[in-house]
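Hypothesis: this fold can be encoded by more than one sequence.
Test: take the structure tokens below, design a sequence, compare later.
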């Protein structure tokens, strides 16, 4: 799944995919921090609403919703019992349903009967921003403009335009301390090897293996990724679990770069936008040159 977000599983990593396949949100999951808003719903709605009915206010942002500077609007359906809100790097567990403004439900974990978990910085921008307003036990309705969701005409079966989501925050899993931002994240250093494609890299730790993977191989890696201004956008290290994927199923910079490595090796890559997600990607994927630290743990399944 080349050019998906995050970087891994073609079925998930990047919009990488298998999570992506499980639902429209997880297409971006591949589904991305404000103040707590006042409770504006009625007691009867909070007590009986199951998130499977089409909201009466689905077609437009109502007057009692509160909007942020980004254009995201929301109102509280049910107050929560927690006191802490998630950070963008945390993993959350939620139940949710999503509608287009004509009342069509396009995705619902409630109807599937299974809540979903995801790192908050690996979904659409409206989710990343919006869930940081919530506390555990809270249910909130969001009106997410197209530029914070999938755009006006996203294709691939994803819904376009303004989207409405009801989200119940069930659990927050705090992220571990993030890896240190590389000192040479801003630009390719002189000691990096630059390939004809524009991919640059340098070895951080030599490996003990002798075999290099081919583009047809499956590999298992730990990785962290940053934009050139030092913002981390994805990290298997912070999730506490390495990622496995086919080398033909990820962005071109990974397909080319990981083939340079041997098991046990750790390497830093500077991947130009044309080998990553481009300069103006949709769905919350990072733009431009990206920097990844990758440790190749295993070649093969």
């Amino acid at each position: 799944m080349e050019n998906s977000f995050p970087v891994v599983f073609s079925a998930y990593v990047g919009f990488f995919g298998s999570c992506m396949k499980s639902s429209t949100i997880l297409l971006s999951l591949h589904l991305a921090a404000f103040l707590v808003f006042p409770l504006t719903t009625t007691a009867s709605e909070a007590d009986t609403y199951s998130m499977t009915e089409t909201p009466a206010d689905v077609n437009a942002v109502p007057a009692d919703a509160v909007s942020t500077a980004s254009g995201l609007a929301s109102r509280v359906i049910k107050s929560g019992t927690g006191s802490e809100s998630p950070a963008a790097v945390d993993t959350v567990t939620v139940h949710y349903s999503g509608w287009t403004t004509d009342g069509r439900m396009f995705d619902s974990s409630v109807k599937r009967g299974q809540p979903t978990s995801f790192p908050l910085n690996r979904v659409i921008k409206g989710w990343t921003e919006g869930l940081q307003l919530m506390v555990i036990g809270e249910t909130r309705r969001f009106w997410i403009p197209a530029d914070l969701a999938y755009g006006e005409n996203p294709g691939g079966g994803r819904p376009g335009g303004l989207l409405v989501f009801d989200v119940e925050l069930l659990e927050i899993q705090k992220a571990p301390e993030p890896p240190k931002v590389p000192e040479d994240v801003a630009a390719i250093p002189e000691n990096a090897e630059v390939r004809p494609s524009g991919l640059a890299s340098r070895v951080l730790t030599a490996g003990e293996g002798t075999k290099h993977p081919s583009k047809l191989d499956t590999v298992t890696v730990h990785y962290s990724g940053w934009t050139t201004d030092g913002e981390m956008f994805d990290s298997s290290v912070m999730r506490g679990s390495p990622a496995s994927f086919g080398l033909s199923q990820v962005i071109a910079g990974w397909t080319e770069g990981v083939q340079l490595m041997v098991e046990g090796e750790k390497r830093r890559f500077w991947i130009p936008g044309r080998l990553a997600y481009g300069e103006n990607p949709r769905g919350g994927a990072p733009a431009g040159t990206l920097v990844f630290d990758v440790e190749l743990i295993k070649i093969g399944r």
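The CA atoms of residues 271 and 290 lie 5 Å apart. The helical segments are 18-22, 43-48, 109-112, 125-131, 236-239, 252-258.
Hypothesis status: open.
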